Amino acid sequence: MTKNLTLTQIRVLEALCRAGGVGAAARDLGVSQPTVSAQLRQIEDRYALRLFQREGHRLIPNAVSHALLPRMRAALALMSEIETTLDRTSTLEAGRLSIGYSTHQFVMPLLSDFITTYPGLRVEARSQATGDLLRLLHAGEVEAVFITISRPDPALHSLELRRERIILMARRDHPLSHGDPLGWDDIARLGLIRREPSSGTRMMFDAAAVAAGARVRHVLDLGSWESMRAAVIAGIGLGVAMEGEIDPDDPQVAAVPIRDPALEVGHYLACLPEMAGLAPVRAFFDLARAHLSKSTPAKL
């Protein structure tokens, strides 16, 4: 008996992982429940293994299914591109692209240009911290991400868009907003506001503080840049941010430099290597490179 999976069987497995049950997967695929059940039984019998844990009518993907899911989604996405290429000559007149970003200040100009260039593509964008975006990327839930990390991840296909200094965000009228760069001894006397633990900026700042032997005091952790800015304006403390996130002409907040060369991070556009050849992802990277060629080394 052949051990080659069919495209239909890959679609069934992906739908079962996503829907969590035979009935829901059948509705999603537009086929009958017996058809889905039969395909799953054939796959499991053929390979003499189980791909799901059964809990009543629920099917919970096991470790094998979880490991295969990103590859199945990549295979289905590639097949979808082949079909689109045949139908629409790969002009990106239709289709979708799902991306994630951690810093809207750096992303929106590029995203706006992409949507204008490819109006037929449906773009889905979600804002989350770097650590959360990497989990979504490896789970196959987004095709590309904008992340803040210290150096390129060799496991990803990535493009560095800019380098940024980590700074403190202060109220414009705060005495420190007009002074010299701060050392760690100065920072240890302040109350700091941070993003959530999965934030790339926070992880780099905390690592630099540990390396410097600094005991910093955190008064508040928040889940978005906008809420941190509001907390800074309210006088709760100084926020940990990237210099490029703060508009120099912002009338309410200002960047306070820190004297530590380790506090530099990169902002990258990244995807899984197997997704780099997809037409929407490739077009997104091409447009990002075009933006870079027209910008200064530090700005997208």
Could you name the key traits of this structure?
single chain, 300 residues, alpha/beta, Arc Repressor Mutant, subunit A, D-Maltodextrin-Binding Protein, domain 2, 9-stranded mixed beta sheet, two-stranded antiparallel ribbon, 23% strand
Question: What would you note in describing this structure?
Answer:
The protein is an alpha/beta fold. The protein folds into three domains: 7-68, Arc Repressor Mutant, subunit A; 87-161 and 266-293, Periplasmic binding protein-like II (D-Maltodextrin-Binding Protein, domain 2, 3-Layer(aba) Sandwich); 163-263, D-Maltodextrin-Binding Protein, domain 2, CATH 3.40.190. Helices cover 42% and strands 23% of the residues. It contains ten helices and eleven strands. The strands form two sheets. Strands 3, 4, 5, 6, 7, 8, 9, 10 and 11 form a nine-stranded mixed beta sheet that branches. Helix 2 (22-29) packs across helix 3 (33-47). The protein is elongated and about 70 Å long. The mean pLDDT is 90. This is Transcriptional regulator.
CATH domain topology of the largest domain: D-Maltodextrin-Binding Protein, domain 2
Low-confidence stretches: none
Taken together, the total number of domains comes to 3
Distance between the termini: 54 Å
Number of strands: 11
Q: Proportion of β residues?
A: 15-25%
Which word captures the global form?
Answer: elongated
Oligomer: single chain
CATH superfamily of the largest domain: Periplasmic binding protein-like II
CATH architecture of the largest domain: 3-Layer(aba) Sandwich
Give the proportion of residues in helices: 40-55%
Order of helices and strands: HHHEEHEHEHEEHEHEHEEEH
Question: Overall mean pLDDT score?
Answer: 90
Helical stretch tally: 10
Please report the first level of CATH classification, the CATH class of the largest domain: Alpha Beta
Major pleated sheet: 9 strands, mixed
Alpha-beta classification: alpha/beta
Radius of gyration: 23 Å
Keywords: DNA-binding, Transcription, Transcription regulation
Family: Belongs to the LysR transcriptional regulatory family.
Pfam families: HTH_1, LysR_substrate
Protein name: Transcriptional regulator
